[in-house]
Each structure stands twice: as C-alpha cells, then as structure tokens.
Design goal:
CATH class of the largest domain: Alpha Beta
CATH superfamily of the largest domain: NAD(P)-binding Rossmann-like Domain
Strand content: 5-15%
Largest sheet: 6 strands, parallel
Order of helices and strands: HHHEHEHEHEHEHEHHEHHEEEH
Radius of gyration: 33 Å
Number of domains: 3
Structural class: alpha/beta
Distance between the termini: 52 Å
Strand order of the largest sheet: 3-2-1-4-5-6
CATH architecture of the largest domain: 3-Layer(aba) Sandwich
Number of helices: 13
Number of strands: 10
C-alpha cells in the first residue's frame, strides 16, 4: 500500500515538472509563472491564464488538465485508502484482541517482553499454556503480533492495563521488567487485584528478593545468580546438568518433569504410593511430594501416604502424566 502511494506521489510530481517545463519551453514564461499556471491547471480552480496562450500552449494545457486531474485523483484515492484501510484494520484487530482476552481464564500474564519475558512467553507457547503479554514498547507489540500471541500495549504497573490483560481471571503472573522497582510495583498491584494469583517476580539483585516476597510474590528469580549457579553446575556435574535440562524442558526425549495437585476426591488420597500403584497403572513415577505446608519430601518412600492438597512432582511422558492427572484431580 505504501509503495502504491509513493508511486502516485511520484506521478503527480512528474506532472508538475512536465507542466512547468512545458510552459517555459512553449510559451517562454518564467519559472514562477509556469509553476503557477501548472498549479491552477491541475487543480482546476478556474482562474484565468497568466498570459495569453498560443495554439500549442492551449493543446498542451488540455493534455496537462487530463493527466493532472487523473494523477491528482489517483493520489487522493491512494491517500484515502491508505488512511481508512489502516484505521479499519487497526480497529478490527483491536476488537479481535479484546474478544480473545475476554475468553482467557486461568492464564499467565507476562509483564515485560524483553530478554527474560520473551523466553518465558516462548516456553509457555511451547507447552500450549494460555498467556498474554503486557509491554509498553511498540517493537514488542510487532513481535508478539508476528507470533500470534495475545498482547496488551501499555504499562504493566498500571491497574487499568493489568485489568485489560484479565489479571482478575488469571492464574499467575510473571513480572519480568528490567527494573526491580517496576517489578515490585507490579507485584503489589497484581496481588491487590487478585489475592489468589501466583506471582513469579524477576529481581536484578539478591537483596531485592526479600522485598518482592514481602510485597506478595510467591517466587523470585534472579537471572544472573541462577545463571552463575548453572554454569558452575555444568563445569562440576555436566552429565547431571544435561539430564536435568532434558527432563525439565522435554527437548530430545518424550518424558519430562511435571507437577500435579491431588484433589479431595482423588482415588489416591489416603493411600500410600505402593497401594496406589501409580507407576504400574500410569507409567509415571513420583519423584517428590510437596506437602500442604510447603515442605518437600524429595525422596518419598513407597509407604508415604498421599493427602489432598499435596502436589506430586512426577516424571513421565505427556500421556502418562495425563492419565495420572485425571485420577489425581478428577473433574
């Protein structure tokens, strides 16, 4: 569309140059008189001639009127199409996005689409988890649109913007803004808007983690600290590190680590791991149990009794985990 508009402008400029040059050559007029005569001729304003025209000049003027009016009409048509088509498309896209956001529930809000937030969004997309991105940068909106990801253009520290992202219906939020102060503000605002929200906040310094937790964050992440620990682990225990990467991301293998909460009507509640026969029936293996009080049994025994509200960390294929989840928390 912009290319057609540029062509139209080029044609119109060409008509003016040709008209001005024609009057100068045919009638011998000055540059100012030739430009003025070309302008009133193309614009068809009905003013009189600057000087009396010769027969050649009149024929040239007729041709200039035809080509000039055609060029001017073409430019105006392209301008109208460019303005209205872009505006209409913007309105339609905005309405589609609003309907898409209204249908989201239990989703994750990703506040910030920078180096960290973009990785979070990609991981959520790979898992097929619903999410919406909130960012103030125009380039972030363009990138999200290319991926087809839900996006709210605005400042994540503002209540209205978080409301547009469906924060009241969301299940979690990842605040991955570059400033600790902004992440702290988002945490406080999100917690006030949704007391049940699970909040993961990014911090640039370890000293900020305690403040984020006090503000309402459930978990805090300091990328440079975690990155340093992972690099040390790769040097000290490369095989273990590679294995943990595989089971955590699922890349290259079919099985992965996942988390499942035991519902009150689960057939596993009140039974030990051995009695439930989870491995034999589903194929998935329970590698850890997170108790209701937050304590972790990192090496559960076969005699460990399962209780409602506990979360099982299991290792298995997506199909095996799906079977386990259906029994662990039946609808």
């Amino acid at each position: 569309m912009s290319r057609r508009f540029a062509w139209a402008l080029g044609i119109l400029v060409g008509v003016f140059v040709a008209g001005t040059g024609g009057y100068m050559l045919i009638e011998g007029w000055s540059l100012v008189d030739s430009v003025y005569m070309t302008t009133i001729t193309v614009a068809t304003v009905g003013f009189g001639e600057v000087h009396p025209l010769s027969s050649s000049g009149r024929l040239f003027t007729i041709g200039l009127i035809i080509t000039g009016v055609g060029a001017l009409g073409f430019v105006f048509g392209q301008l109208v199409e460019f303005v209205f088509e872009g505006r209409i498309q913007e309105i339609l896209e905005g309405r589609r996005m609003e309907r898409r956001l209204e249908n989201l529930s239990g989703h994750t809000v990703v506040a910030g689409f920078g180096r960290v937030g973009s990785v979070v969004a990609r991981a959520l997309a790979d898992e097929g988890a619903p999410f919406v991105i909130v960012d103030l940068a125009d380039e972030s909106q363009v990138a999200a649109r290319e991926y087809g990801w839900p996006f709210v253009h605005g400042d994540a520290t503002e209540e209205e913007v978080l409301g547009q992202a469906g924060i009241q219906r969301a299940g979690s939020i990842v605040t991955a803004l570059s400033s600790d102060a902004e992440n702290l503000f988002v945490t406080v605002t999100a917690r006030a808007l949704n007391p049940e929200l699970f909040i993961v906040a990014r911090s640039s310094h370890e000293s900020t983690e305690a403040k984020l937790l006090k503000a309402g964050a459930n978990r805090t992440i300091t990328p440079n600290v975690i990155g340093g620990r992972r690099m040390a682990s790769m040097v000290l225990h490369p095989t273990v590190s590679d294995y943990l990467d595989i089971v955590a991301s699922g890349e290259g293998v079919e099985f992965r680590l996942q988390e499942i909460e035991l519902g009150p009507s689960s057939c596993y509640v009140g039974r030990s791991i051995a009695e439930a026969r989870i491995r034999e029936i589903t194929g998935a293996q329970v590698v850890a149990i997170v108790k209701a009080d937050g304590t972790v049994d990192a090496n559960p025994l076969a005699s460990s009794v399962l209780m409602a509200g506990e979360r099982l960390v299991v290792l298995g294929t997506p199909d095996q985990v799906a079977v386990l989840a259906e029994q662990a928390c039946p609808i």
